[in-house]
């Protein structure tokens, strides 16, 4: 299951329902908007993970943060703290407000929703992304090893594999070797 599917299926649609409620839209419309935003966030995470220290930074954020609460208690998504957290996440994932505006603009073109509404939605969706990843990471109470290693939560290797498999060939080994060559 990919990241978007995990978000759209998270805990009986609670996070999607909360986004719909917050922005006064139908759940189907919220799903559509989220489905336009998450791929850009996923690409940003993939890009960050491929940089030196990026994987470690993501794993640290997942192990030290309490992001899973945004999935477990979706009503928290509309509070100021998750919005602030989501903006910080966007800064790490996308790098700049210009990129965030571009993501919202692209989603607006594809959904017909106002770009300003989607810009406001971005931090909530970023918090949801980290919430789903955090929920996977906390599956056993610890992060364990890298994909393929023992002791890691059941869904985390699959998700990290998605971010690490840059050439989408189904194997991360060649990608990890390529990363290692860049840094050593």
Provide a descriptive summary of the structure in words.
This protein has one domain. Mean pLDDT is 77; it is low at 140-154. The protein is mostly helical. The protein is globular. It contains ten helices and no strands. The termini are far apart.
Name the descriptors.
single chain, 184 residues, mainly alpha, globular
**Describe the biggest sheet?**
none
Q: What's the helix-strand series?
A: HHHHHHHHHH
- Which structural class do the helices and strands define? mainly alpha
- Our estimate of the beta-strand percent is under 5%
Q: What would the principal axes of the Cα set say about the shape?
A: globular
Briefly say what this structure is:
With 184 residues, this protein is an all-alpha fold.
Topology:
Layout lengths: L2 H6 L5 H10 L3 H23 L4 H11 L4 H4 L7 H15 L2 H15 L3 H23 L18 H9 L8 H11 L1
